[in-house]
Write a structure and sequence with these properties.
The chain is of the alpha/beta class. The chain has twelve helices and eight strands. It has one domain: Aldolase class I (TIM Barrel, Alpha-Beta Barrel). The chain is globular and about 60 Å long. 49% of the residues are buried. Bound molecules: glyceraldehyde-3-phosphate, 1,3-dihydroxyacetonephosphate and zinc ion. The site of glyceraldehyde-3-phosphate has 8 residues, from helix 3 and strand 3.
Length: 282
């Protein structure tokens, strides 16, 4: 069943676990996520980035997720990941997304507040949840030093101001994770996370969570992270399985090539759900 992001994340915040938010571009990714959620009895967020929507089309993504959500008793939220374009956010609302992220984190604080507030007013009026970001979660490919990255970490005072002036439902924070595959082991600023959680007492979101060691993920969840974004690890499972199958078989039927990849993605997602503590919560 399709539910709002707020419904999933408020429960996770209250009970102390995190809901996985998995990026999709294709039907098989959507199926793998729902199958993993059913097998582990996990609530789940399926999300599409602006790039994902451009690839598959907003209509196609929402139709696929709604079709799967209709046929399961697992609570599923459909979320826009890193929305930066106001019109596209409106398009997602029109197509039945139950949660949107407004990522105005590149703007100065007041610009971030003004932009986020405008989205909250509209989305909340129709029962759609809003995630915002403060601090900058970059990419692992960004050419920045550790100290440069640390300078972009979330400031707790700014976070408090953004939350109180906008009424967002969840907040993405920068504490040392980055999008894409890591070269070394990411070091997370747990003290900052703990402080922000204490001060805001609301659902906190961790982006760039692929490749973060299990002990760090579990610690982040214990300190109050309630939504964990995963894209890269699913891409890696998909591509490894396709490569392996094509190397070993003289294959030309897409169904034969993609089936092992869909199974591999499902296993990766199941392992994340157990790690995040969402298994058994649906
Ligand atoms: O946050 C980034 C996600 O991994 C989505 O990536 O923009 O290539 O679809 P994408
Ligand atoms: P990864 O690249 O670590 O999977 O991060 C995904 C993400 O944060 C999507 O918003
Ligand atoms: Zn992200």
């Amino acid at each position: 069943m399709l539910v709002s992001g707020k419904e999933l994340l408020d429960k996770a915040h209250k009970e102390g676990y995190a809901v996985g938010a998995f990026n999709v571009n294709t039907m098989e990714q959507c199926q793998a996520i729902i199958a993993a959620a059913e097998e582990t009895r996990s609530p789940v967020i399926i999300q599409a980035s602006q790039g994902g929507l451009k690839y598959a089309g907003v209509k196609m993504i929402s139709a696929m997720v709604k079709a799967l959500a209709e046929d399961t008793d697992i609570p599923v939220a459909l979320h826009l990941d890193h929305g930066t374009d106001f019109k596209q956010i409106m398009l997602c609302l029109r197509h039945g997304f139950t949660s949107v992220m407004i990522d105005a984190s590149k703007l100065p604080l007041q610009g971030n507040i003004d932009t986020t507030k405008k989205v909250c007013e509209i989305a909340h009026a129709i029962g759609v949840s809003v995630e915002a970001e403060i601090g900058k979660i970059g990419g692992t490919e960004d050419d920045v030093t550790v100290s440069e990255r640390e300078a972009t970490f979330t400031d707790p005072d700014e976070a408090e101001k953004l939350v109180s002036e906008t009424g967002i439902d969840s907040l993405a924070i920068a504490i040392g994770t980055a999008h894409g595959p890591y070269k070394g082991e990411p070091k997370l600023d747990f003290d900052r996370l703990e402080l922000i959680k204490k001060r805001l007492n609301m659902p906190i979101v961790l982006h760039g969570s692929s490749g973060v060691p299990e002990t760090s993920i579990r610690k982040a969840v214990s300190l109050g992270v309630n939504k964990i974004n995963i894209d890269t690890d699913i891409r890696l499972s998909f591509s490894a399985a396709v490569r392996d199958f094509v190397d070993k078989n003289d294959a030309y039927d897409p169904r034969k090539i993609i089936t092992p990849a869909r199974d591999a993605m499902k296993e990766t997602i199941k392992a994340k759900m157990i790690m995040f503590g969402s298994a058994g919560k649906a």
